[in-house]
Amino acid sequence: EVHLVESGGGFVQPGGSLRLSCAASGFTFNTYGMNWVRQAPGKGLEWVSEISSTGSTIYYADSAKGRFTISRDNAKNSLYLQMNSLRDEDTALYFCARELTAAGFDYWGRGTLVTVSS
Amino acid sequence: QSALTQPASVSGSPGQSITISCTGTSNDVGAYNSVSWYQQRPGQAPKLTIYDVSNRPSGVSARFSGSRSGNTASLTISGVQAEDEADYYCSSYTRINTRVFGGGTKLTVL
Predict the structure, then answer these.
(1) From B40, B51, B104, residue closest to A104, measured CB to CB
(2) Which residues are paired to B54 by β-bridges?
(3) Closest by Cβ to A44, choosing from B57, B98, B101
(4) How far is the C-alpha of A14 from the C-alpha of B9, rounded, in Å?
């Protein structure tokens, strides 16, 4: 059974940093692209970033470009999101999601909450 | 990248059919066969309901169907049931290799 478990969220002040992790199991991790999607409290979904199966291709939303870095360790079946220069508007539940097709994410974790506040 | 446009809410009585629209541009919805729909119940992660415009993942009820005309995609639920009450989001791949979601539609079953 496919499982995605996010961790690393927490409370951070504006300008601070956090590193999110997503532990994957139940499938051949190194054959799937992976994504981060976030959801601010009471708001809709926002795509953040994608990394290809090998890590060679990476894309970011404009809101993440220059501040966030996505990476993966296929030997550890893990996905990461390094978030720097955090802002109040980055407060959200961050989900990792497996990519079935270009815009079709077939498995999601339960999310890890990031709160940015002074 | 602007969010795709969805109605904020739709409603229907049990057994009725409802349709949720998702309007984008020729740079996203109208560009590729890469439109997906997600169902999200309160406190849960999104669930893939339709992918590649009209394909249903295994385990999703045949009451859910998707289509697209030009820059507008649609999700139709035939014979809506109480269990379908949830938020629904569309998503599309874009010409600049990003993804974009719609603002979400709250479905109320009367």
Answers:
(1) B51
(2) none
(3) B101
(4) 34
Angle in degrees, CA A28, B45, A77, rounded to 5: 25
Whole-number pLDDT of residue A103 = 81
- pLDDT higher than 90, residue B2: no
Q: What is the residue whose two structure tokens read 């893939």?
A: B48
- Which among A42, A50, A103 has a CA at the least distance from the CA of B22? A103
Chain B interface disruption, residue of A38, A43, A45, A108, most B CBs within 10 A: A45
Q: What is the dihedral of CA B45, B105, A93, A25, to 10 degrees?
A: 20
The Cα A93–Cα B41 span in angstroms is 15
Residues B11 and B107: beta-carbon distance below 8 Å = yes
Region A55-83: mean pLDDT is 97
CB contact under 8 A, A95 and B98: no
